[in-house]
Amino acid sequence: MEANQWHTRLIKWRRHLHQYPELSFQEVETTKYIIDQLQGLPGVTIATGVEQLGLQTGALVTVGDGEKPIIGLRADIDALPIKEETEAAYQSCRPGVMHACGHDGHTAMLLGAVFYLSKLYELKKLHGTVKCLFQPAEETEDNKGNTGAQYVLQSGILEGTEAIIALHLDPELPLGEVKLTSGLVMANVDTFTITIMGTGGHGAYPEQSVDPIWLTSLVLPYLYSMSHRQLSALEPSVLSICQITGGASSNVIPSSVVIKGTMRTYSQTAREHLAVELKKGLETIRGLGGAYDLSLHLGEPALYNDSEIVDVLECAIKTIRPDVTIHKEPYGMGGEDFSHLTTRFKGAMLFLGAFDQTKRKTSLHQPTFCFDECALELGMQTLIKSTLLLLKKGGNINGT
User: Fold this and answer.
1) Are 6 and 114 in contact (CB under 8 A)?
2) Could you tell me which of 39, 50, 33, 47 has the C-alpha nearest to residue 104?
3) What kind and span of H or E run contains 264?
4) Cα 321–chain centre separation
5) Which among 32, 91, 164, 395 would be 20 to 30 A from 182, CA to CA?
């Protein structure tokens, strides 16, 4: 297929997916669309459903006959509960749901990679097997606290994979620039819910109650200081309060206040330390006559980029675009459930510059999110070239 044909097809896929976004664990039509595009391609088998993948949505598309080495590619397919404000001709048809993190683009790039790898298989030029995971539920956990990557791992369908790679669009970085480095690059994601309990009462007689709003006001400065007073300044960490609820009337002191927030860290040491300090700080509430309940949920682990896979990604993108600028720096304090996969398999994620200069500046998870669709072809080519380099390395992927 000629370059302009790839460009046209990638945009067609991406815009269809963008128009019909689906939330985590609800990607039924998205899954059907992916399967419809790939069904019947030479050398392609498709696994889906709870029995094979661990979830009702998503698909594992395998190209090849199971011959080793086995390389994994991953794209996430879910959208976010955000009302779109791009005014694009192809904007979301579903009120309050939007692809605001580029997953429509990630899916389109992986679709293109499957087509290309299938053609290589047909020409007997694919020496190995490629497992292409169209993964649901990256953005949100279910009521069991699990994301899509965890269910896929539990299914065992990726066993035998020797390396796995993923790309992520970056709407703030110009086209032709990428972020890529080894080691820890994204954060541990932990969330907490604190219920501060006092005794309710009349707003005119605060002395007759233990005011949980007052207790909250005393605790907040401690919480906000934790990440930069309890840890070294050289240790990346963030604690954010994202929701406070309490009270229902202007003259009634409530009996409780609920605080919800998130803690982000890079190292396991920092993760454990903040958890301990959080509990320690809340103990002051008891000394003031109140009580508290703390629910702390440990979410996805920090994303670790394997140095060998990073080298392959760097070689691939430099081969495709020699003038590429590579920023060798961590990606920030955001989280990525791809990290669950990289705790099991050697892997790495690359952030691909896709700033659309014709639009106003935007960022991930914003209602104005958009990206330069020229990045789609560069991303697809990077997935393909990286895969072929890893297949060529064969048994040397794991240093054997």
Assistant:
1) no
2) 33
3) strand 256-265
4) 26
5) 395
Residues 302-341 as b/e (b if ≥16 CB within 10 A, e otherwise) read: bbbbbebbbebbbebbeebeeebebeeebbbbebbbbbbb
Cα 49 to Cα 157: distance, rounded to the nearest angstrom: 12
Digit-coded pLDDT (tens) for 62-104: 999 999 999 999 999 999 999 999 999 999 999 999 999 999 9
Cβ neighbourhood burial of 65 (10 Å; 0-12, 13-18, 19+) = exposed
Compute the distance between CA of residue 89 and CA of residue 201 in angstroms, rounded to an integer. Answer: 54
- Quick check: 14 and 103 in contact, CB under 8 A? no
| Cα-only R_g, the chain | 24
CA–CA distances in Å: residue 116 to residues 46, 156, 167, 384, 387: 16, 26, 17, 8, 11
Question: Which residues have C-beta within 8 Å of that of residue 278, sequence separation ≥ 6?
Answer: 192, 223, 226, 263, 294, 296
From 181, 155, 225, 222, select the one nearest 327 (Cα to Cα): 181
pLDDT higher than 50, residue 400: no
Tokens (6 digits) for 138: 């990256």
- Provide the pLDDT for residue 398: 59
Over residues 39-47, the mean pLDDT reads 98
Average model confidence (pLDDT) across the chain = 95
Q: Does residue 1 carry a pLDDT above 70?
A: no
Domain annotation for the chain: domains and CATH numbers: 3-187+302-398 (3.40.630.10), 188-298 (3.30.70.360)
Give the C-alpha separation, 248 to 254, whole Å.
7
The backbone torsions φ and ψ at residue 356, rounded to the nearest 5 degrees and listed phi first, read -90, 105
For residue 3, pLDDT over 70 is answered with no
Is the torsion defined by CA of 247, 248, 250, 253 positive or negative?
negative
The candidate with the shortest Cα–Cα distance to 155, out of 340, 391, 349, 390, is 340
Is 274:226 a contact under the CB 8 Å cutoff? yes
Instruction: Give the separation between CA 139 and CA 103, rounded to whole angstroms.
Output: 10
Length of the chain: 400
